[in-house]
Design a protein that fits this description.
The chain is built from 5 helices and 10 strands. It is α/β, with parallel strands linked by helices.
Length: 207
């Protein structure tokens, strides 16, 4: 079945539209949604069948996949991450919400499929739509970028072109306006000093 294109406004996401997306996620659906960088492909972190679908699309084994956890804020971090020190928390507070992915030590309460992971990538995008979805869902979205390194870049920024390409693979494509072509900056905070893994949209000067 073809995906639905759903227009949601970042400044004031309509609750009825957010609820519709949340219902699809709860039933194991996949969504493509806006972030503060590239559009993301996401599902409910607790739904194994949906996680398997994403792994299949990305052509990776689920237990080896490096998906990010998109959170509404830092309040439930301890559910997925081991206790972190004050210096690490200060960096997170300074940078989030924002265009960063932070690699942190995986906690004991990770969903079963991620239990063996020593680290997890945490995102809190500066985008009201995806944070409203996470709030409605009550737990993070597992997310990966829709961008392929060898693809023409335009399709990844225009929701209508995204729909054309992904229509048979996902359930909803959220049109939150044009996306960005620059990915998040990835910073590893599990090492003694913060280590920049990928420089993207987020400034590394903030460290």
């Amino acid at each position: 079945m073809a995906a639905e294109l759903l227009r949601i406004y970042d400044e004031n996401p309509a609750p009825k539209h957010i609820n519709k997306v949340v219902e699809v996620l709860k039933k194991g659906g996949l969504i493509i949604y806006p972030t503060d960088t590239i559009y993301g492909l996401g599902c409910d972190i607790t739904n194994v069948a949906a996680l398997e679908r994403i792994a299949q699309i990305k052509n990776v084994k689920l237990e080896k996949a490096n998906f990010s956890f998109v959170c509404e804020d830092l309040s439930n971090l301890s559910d997925y991450v081991k206790q972190i020190d004050t210096a690490t928390f200060k960096i997170l507070k300074r940078c989030l919400p924002g265009p960063y992915t932070f690699i942190l030590p995986g906690g004991n309460n990770l969903p079963n499929v991620f239990k063996k992971k020593k680290t997890v990538g945490i995102r809190v995008p500066d985008n009201n739509i995806c944070r409203a979805i996470v709030n409605g869902l009550g737990n993070p979205i597992v997310s990966t970028s829709i961008r392929d390194e060898d693809e023409v870049l335009e399709y990844g920024t225009d929701p209508e072109l995204i729909l054309e390409k992904w229509s048979n693979l996902v359930d909803i494509v959220i049109d939150g306006g044009y996306g960005d072509n620059i990915p998040s900056t990835v910073i590893d905070l599990t090492t003694e000093e913060p280590e920049v893994i990928r420089e993207g949209k987020g400034s590394v000067e903030i460290l």
